[in-house]
Amino acid sequence: MWRAVAEGLGGKMWPLAEDLWEIEVASVKTRVNLHQTEFDNPAVLGLAGRKVAVHRLLAGAGLPVPEFAEFSLDNLDHAYRFHVAHPKGCVVKPANGYGGQGVTTHLQKVSEVRKAAILASLYDRELLIEAQVPGESYRLLVLEGRMVHAVCRRGPRLKGDGVSRIRSLVEAEDARRRASGQPGLDFDRDCLFTLAYQGLSPDSVPARGKAFLVKSVNDASRKYAEVRTVYNETVTDLVCDSVRRDAERAAHVVGSDFVGVDVITTDPAAPLHQCGGVINEVNTTPALHHHYDPPGARYPRVAADVVRALLRRKAAATGAR
Description:
The chain is of the alpha+beta class and 321 residues long. The chain is 33% helix and 24% strand.
């Protein structure tokens, strides 16, 4: 990807090590280490990985974040009490770090909270429990204070026929998928949770042509354990100005010049406070492979924007000296 970007900008790229490269355009150079670039200082990078600190900073700036509580294996009672107050579902995750490792969603039993805490503790001693938030996961990429691209992890959708119950529609789609070798579709917790926040149940009869979301996540294994978030649809044009401004504000509060702001919402075209959406995380050194648009492109357009910004900064710093 980086080589294609360099060539597209009329420059070149060569390796300094197996995973470290130098890009040069018009005699100005910048370096990349896999997905890491020369944006942001170590303090900003360290802050972004501290989920509790980020939640508090964002909330202090008036931005919506999930309800949460800190705990550890030594004080699981904190997590149990939080779970009782949020019976529709909770999420347990490491309090520090990146990449979605050790995250378990849709927790509805005390025994599940304990099991999820043990998993999360493999990655960090400090743990975090959050209320499960309705909606799909969006990543808004903010570069130098401006949202430049957005992608979504789309869940499966179906349309009503005005006669059939959702139960029958899902069963028919499940049979179709299995017959074609695809993962099935059934009424797991994600499905029931997702239907409920749309005011639906398995016995609802959607109007003919009415689309509805079946699940927020394609999770065929139903383990509810995240390894990483895979975004599968570009939605830049669907994000309203209010949500865009929230993402840009979050980047400013964290102090990052290049960050992926993760949002959970039922509707990116509506302000977060109207539909119960939240800023779930911020991810510095965001991986650009999520942002290819259109499919088949040699590199994401925003990758060229990133390199241009880095080269401009480097040229300005060199000129100042």
